[in-house]
Fold this sequence. Notes:
The chain has 315 residues and is mainly alpha-helical. The protein has helices at 6-24, 31-42, 47-58, 63-75, 79-100, 105-112, 115-122, 125-138, 142-153, 159-166, 168-181, 186-205, 207-218, 228-241, 246-249, 254-261, 263-280, 287-310. The longest helix is centred in the C-terminal third of the chain and has 24 residues, at 287-310. The protein is globular and about 55 Å long. The model has no long low-confidence stretch (mean pLDDT 87). Keywords: Membrane, Transmembrane, Transmembrane helix.
Amino acid sequence: MSIYNKKVSFFIVFAFYFFSVFLLNFYVSGDQYYYHMFYDAASNGSLQDAINLGRRMLSAGEPISLSILWVGAKLGVPKNLYVSFLNIILFLGVYRLCWKYRCPWYAFILLVASYYFIVLMTGAEKLKIGYIFIIWSLVSSGYLRYILVVLSITSHFQMLAFIAVFYFKETVSQVNQILKNGKTSKRFIFLVVSSGLVIIPIFWLLSEVVLSKIISYYDGELKFFDAVNVVFLFIISFIVFRRWDYRVWSVLLFAPFAIVLGDSRVNIMAVSFCFYFFLVYRKMSNLFVLSLLGYFVFKSFFFVESIFINGHGFG
């Protein structure tokens, strides 16, 4: 069976869109209550009004994600239909990535039915947009790839932690190259300069919002136990790859973020990081990887059940 052909993919996308609309119609409380209020209010104002509204109603300052939501609101598209369209873009990005690395069809199905994918579909609006850009950057090349990376960070500041780990090896390599022979790649320079020109002014203007979020996540204490899941992922990665290299040890770079910000904010990025390398190095059919996917699918059942019962997934 192959899901990587036009007829099958069209049917899957069609079915996925209606499933998304159906599920979102039940997700009416929690953070989504405020997102619906924001979406309705944003339809009556300018983009600047929407960004100011996002700061007040959502404690959000990320300009790209707020701008994208504002576009849908101004066009008069019902929120659940518009967000389902964004879910399709997310889905197609994952589909394209899986096609690129020849992911087995059963692993792909488990992946899009897993807990964190359902969370991105439903309860994590801004993070979803950040993931859309980062996933499509992984199937792009050249300068477009780095532009999408910058857009990802400015869609959700949390993506900065993911990018920091993901590009850690390349950054260290480029710095060593500069120290040794004073040279580096043009694309790396482009990434650093463009990121600086875009992100630094945004952080400067929104420093109060960013700091208040970090403080609220930090909660005044270090959460060492929250790094357990990261360590578990590290162990799984080591078992799967059976060697000590960047694909394995870099997972531990998420541990400091988990200790400071909490595992609820970091786990999704650590899991995404691991599965990207499982995908790239053709390990999606590995028994340990499939078992991990099976666990996340099992976990997603309770999340979806909570949506139907409580109106949100984190009941």
